[in-house]
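Issue 218. Parser rejects a valid record. Input:
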Amino acid sequence: MFAIIRHQEPQPGQSRTVRFEGRQFGSNASFFLVDAEPGGGVGLHVHPYPETWIVRKGEAEFTVGDDKTRAFPGDIVVASAGFPHRFCNVGDGRLELVCIHPNDTIQQEFL
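Output the parser choked on:
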């Protein structure tokens, strides 16, 4: 058996980021497909599992614990479980990321 979730263009003013939680599909993986404007990103938060990001387009600055790094298309960044982290689009164009959560639901606590 399989499921297809068709892409839908967002309405004006609506977030372009897609949230997928695997539980309803019998999957042990969840993710965000991020599509952020320059300056966009997510605030400091933490998960009880590691998070993996794949940069598809743009330039991101990641903060994990006390460390900061920049990542570019094709780069993969991993934050260990329990470490506060965030990212921001520091480039001039759109930032596209895949944010992988190895869990059937996304569990995050904003700090």
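Fixed in the parser; the record now loads. The chain has a mean pLDDT of 94.
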